[in-house]
Specification:
heterodimer, A: 174 residues, alpha/beta, Beta Polymerase, domain 2, 5-stranded mixed β-sheet, elongated, B: 192 residues, Rossmann fold, two-stranded antiparallel ribbon, 6 helices, 12% strand, flat
């Protein structure tokens, strides 16, 4: 039977030091790797005869403004054969982070990567059609990055004091 | 034994005639008043329903509230034959140009009612992806508050529109003020 331990030991066996930060949350194993190895790791997980992580459940972005690696891409994998899930994380450097595309492995990554680009500005190298998917094409920001306010910036009728907040303090922590 | 039930004579509601001069075989009034009366009682609405306010409108159209009583039996799903654009629900910024195109496809005279908090002001969705009121892209005649408004409120909104339609001057749509209003929204007027 395939367990989180066997997944981790198989990954360590094949990629050694390149598999970092193994973590168990809500019973789901999570590992990190780097830009160079992410596609190889995903391909291994998909094609391995025992693991068979054939389904890319989700691919999304994260923004940690205080960390060295400000951005992360998270791949949620599901092995139907073994009924087990796995998270693979890819931490990224810089304000215009680049990640390799996973569209070569799963066609479903196409729209998910467009969404991640749309909201976080993560550029997927080799993506066949990397443009906004949910937001208006004219949008100039990447709205889920923490430096952008969640609220609509076209409104002029809102007095922050009436909402009990100091406009100077709202963004001070970023 | 036979019983007979007497049914009272059926009352038919008829719109009141406008002010005018009447005599034997003639009735004289202003053209504005006649047109206003006819238009008021035959408004064809175009429901642009995107969320829960649209569900309330469905209740408004159904037999209990019976929207058809107001001459709006015929709900037009083509903007070309519609008089009243009823915007019901959250309009995302991506939906904005589509709504504006629907408005532009309507023939004059046309009216707009923003039903519910979202269409009127963005409502609870004060966020980067939602239009903060449809009056940012098209002119609005009547706003109906509520989240969502009850059918009574939607009917009240329609009756306010009826008042506007009834009392509107036939020259209004040709006035420089009206043209300036449309131009401020970047909407083409009839002349150009």
């Amino acid at each position: 039977m395939t367990t989180n331990e066997t997944i981790l030991s198989k990954l360590k066996e094949n990629f050694g030091e390149k598999i970092t930060n193994p973590d168990l949350q809500y019973g789901i194993l999570s590992v990190s790797t780097d830009h160079e190895h992410i596609i190889k790791v995903l391909q291994f997980l998909r094609d391995d005869q025992e693991l068979q992580f054939g389904f890319l459940t989700d691919l999304c972005g994260l923004h940690y403004p205080h960390r060295d690696h400000k951005f992360e891409v998270v791949y949620h994998l599901h092995s139907f054969r073994n009924n087990i899930r796995l998270r693979v994380k890819l931490p990224l450097h810089g304000d215009a982070p680049h990640a390799p595309t996973a569209t070569g492995l799963w066609s479903s990554a196409n729209w998910m990567e467009r969404e991640t680009y749309d909201f976080f500005g993560i550029i997927f190298e080799g993506h066949p059609n990397l443009k906004r998917i949910l937001n208006v094409d004219e949008m100039t920001i990447f709205p889920l990055r923490k430096e952008y306010p969640l609220e609509d910036n076209t409104r002029k009728d809102k007095n922050d004091e009436l909402f009990g907040r100091d406009p100077k303090l709202i963004r001070a922590d970023l | 034994m036979e019983t007979s039930v007497e049914t009272p004579p059926r009352k038919v509601n008829v719109a009141e005639a406008p002010e005018g001069h009447t005599g034997e075989g003639f009735f004289a009034t202003k053209l504005d008043k006649v047109i206003g009366l006819a238009r008021k009682n035959s408004i064809w609405p175009l429901p642009f329903a995107t969320s829960c306010c649209g569900i309330e409108f469905m209740a408004t159209m159904a037999s209990h509230y019976d929207f058809a009583r107001f001459g709006s039996e015929r709900v037009s799903f083509s903007p070309r034959q519609a008089d009243l654009l009823m915007v019901m629900g959250t309009i995302a910024k991506k939906m904005g140009p589509i709504l504006k195109q629907v408005y532009e496809q309507m023939a004059e005279p046309r009216w707009v009612v923003a039903v519910g908090a979202c269409a009127s002001s963005g409502g609870i969705f004060d966020t980067y992806s939602v239009l903060q009121g449809i009056d940012q892209i098209i002119p609005v005649d009547v706003y109906v508050p509520g989240c969502p408004p009850r059918p009574e409120q939607i009917i009240d909104g329609l009756m306010k529109i009826q008042d506007l339609v009834h009392n509107e001057s036939l020259r209004r749509r040709n006035s420089p003020e009206y043209k300036a209003l449309l131009e401020s929204y970047g909407i083409k007027t009839m002349d150009n």
